[in-house]
């Protein structure tokens, strides 16, 4: 008998109803991200100017040590538009990519992995509200993190039942695989899923994951050599405890805005508190993974591999010890937003457990997330506005050959440079 909840018609309905409120929730965290958009980081260093100068050739140009096909395609797509519109168009693309995982979570595509509709809705809302998300929020430079999360959900979810669904899956997985190194971490999960639930869809998703992972690996070993920071890591057990306690435990439980007073304590400086928090976090994670469903363990495999890779090669400084930089929030929090979401998912799992001790622990740890971290981190930090728009208007009127610099955010970074081409 066909499950009515799995039909294409009923699958689209709740997603369509929730798309607008989800979009409004995400927008409300920082309206100016769309209303007064600015270029962020590689948007100004690479994605727009490379498309402007090299056209389709930019698709083969690594940035940050790997291919960034999604960002490159957007950079190419906006070339016919006025330069004044480019920051907004980049932000709209990033906004759409960030919204998609929440919508996919509430669809019945995820019902096989998370049967409870209430749980899927709760996780989608928590994703939209996740604390410690400054570098993760609505910028195209870091959109590959949201695309990687969407790819994980596609791999773990029910196979598509229509041709558009198949096309959506393969396009997203291909774009994700060619827009960052994350398929190297997702391929083992895709293989696990193909063994658990064999079928044409699982095999197709695994094939895309393996193919794109291989492409990125070749690029990283050849074209992109030297694309990552060579600053010292400053790694060690003490610093590892501080990074994880800061970015994951405190980032989730109280949000990045509230960590300063805790880091000023003597117990923190002596590394006692970071070790206690990290140790407790590991115990909670073990309990959740032991008590929780297989899908949680699959997600943990992906996020854990991603976290290890990020700790080995963080791009947060070109000169200073990089692990130390990441103990100063919100620096580098793009690397930890996905682990924070996994932490929250583990707390939700424990809170729904039948065992009193697991339920008590989950609810006790969810309370500060809901009552403190999310409210305090809901407004995304506003950054100083630049005179990008005025410069873009001057550039539009300038004669060919004119070279101009354009500010990007975070402010203080190297500007974007463009030389006016003949029309």
Notes on the protein architecture:
It is a single chain. The protein has 423 residues and is mainly α. It has 2 domains: 12-221, no CATH class; 237-377, no CATH class. Helices cover 62% and strands 2% of the residues. It contains 19 helices and 2 strands. The chain has a two-stranded antiparallel sheet. Helix 9 (183-196) runs antiparallel to helix 15 (294-312). Mean pLDDT is 92; it is low at 1-11.
Please render the helix and strand layout as text:
Blueprint: H1 8-28, H2 32-35, H3 42-54, H4 69-77, H5 86-106, H6 117-128, H7 143-156, H8 163-177, H9 183-196, H10 200-221, H11 237-253, H12 259-263, H13 266-269, H14 272-291, H15 294-312, H16 322-325, H17 337-351, H18 356-377, H19 388-397, E1 403-406, E2 416-419
Antiparallel strand pairs: 1-2
Care to give the gist of this entry?
This protein is mostly helical and 423 residues long. The chain is 62% helix and 2% strand.
Q: Structural class, please?
A: mainly alpha
Helix content: 55-70%
Instruction: Estimate the global geometry from the Cα principal axes.
Output: globular
Q: Report the sheet-strand fraction.
A: under 5%
Residue stretches low in confidence (pLDDT < 50, at least 5 long) are: 1-11
In total, the number of strands is 2
Q: Helix count?
A: 19
- Order of adjacent strands in the largest pleated sheet: 1-2
SSE string, helices as H and strands as E: HHHHHHHHHHHHHHHHHHHEE
Radius of gyration: 22 Å
Throw out a few tags for this protein.
globular; mainly alpha; disordered N terminus; 423 residues; two-stranded antiparallel ribbon; 62% helix; 2% strand
């Amino acid at each position: 008998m066909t499950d009515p909840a799995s039909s294409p018609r009923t699958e689209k309905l709740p997603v369509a109803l929730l798309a607008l409120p989800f979009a409004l929730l995400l927008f409300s965290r920082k309206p100016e991200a769309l209303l007064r958009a600015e270029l962020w980081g590689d948007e100004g260093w690479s994605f727009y100017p490379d498309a402007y100068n090299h056209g389709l050739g930019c698709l083969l140009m690594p940035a940050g040590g790997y291919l960034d096909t999604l960002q490159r395609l957007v950079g190419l797509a906006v070339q016919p538009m006025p330069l004044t519109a480019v920051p907004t168009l980049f932000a709209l693309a990033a906004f759409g990519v960030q919204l998609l995982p929440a919508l996919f979570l509430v669809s019945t595509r995820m019902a096989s992995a998370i049967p409870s509709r209430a749980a899927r809705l709760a996780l989608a809302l928590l994703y939209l509200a996740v604390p410690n998300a400054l570098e993760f929020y609505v910028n195209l430079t870091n959109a590959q993190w949201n695309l990687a999360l969407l790819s994980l959900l596609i791999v773990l979810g029910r196979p598509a039942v229509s041709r558009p669904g198949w096309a959506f899956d393969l396009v997203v997985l291909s774009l994700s695989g060619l827009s960052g190194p994350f398929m190297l971490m997702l391929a083992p999960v895709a293989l696990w899923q193909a063994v658990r639930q064999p079928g044409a869809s699982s095999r197709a998703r695994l094939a895309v994951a393996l193919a794109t992972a291989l492409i990125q690996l070749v690029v990283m070993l050849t074209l992109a050599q030297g694309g990552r920071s060579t600053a010292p890591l400053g790694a060690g057990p003490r610093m590892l405890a501080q990074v994880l306690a800061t970015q994951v435990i405190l980032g989730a439980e109280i949000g990045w805005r509230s960590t300063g007073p805790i880091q000023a304590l003597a117990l923190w400086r002596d590394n006692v508190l970071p070790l206690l928090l990290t140790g407790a976090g590991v115990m909670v994670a073990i309990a959740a993974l032991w008590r929780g469903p297989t899908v949680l363990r699959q997600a943990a495999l992906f996020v854990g591999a991603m976290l290890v890779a990020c700790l080995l090669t963080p791009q947060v400084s070109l000169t200073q010890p990089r692990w130390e930089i990441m103990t100063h929030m919100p620096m580098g929090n793009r690397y930890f937003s996905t682990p924070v979401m996994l932490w929250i998912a583990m707390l939700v799992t424990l809170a729904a457990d039948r065992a009193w001790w697991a339920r008590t622990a989950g609810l006790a740890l969810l309370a500060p997330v809901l009552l403190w971290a999310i409210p305090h981190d809901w407004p995304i930090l506003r950054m100083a506005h630049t005179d990008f728009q005025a410069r873009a208007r001057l550039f539009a009127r300038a004669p060919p050959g004119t070279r101009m610099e354009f500010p990007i955010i975070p402010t203080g970074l190297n500007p974007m440079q463009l030389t006016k081409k003949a029309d």
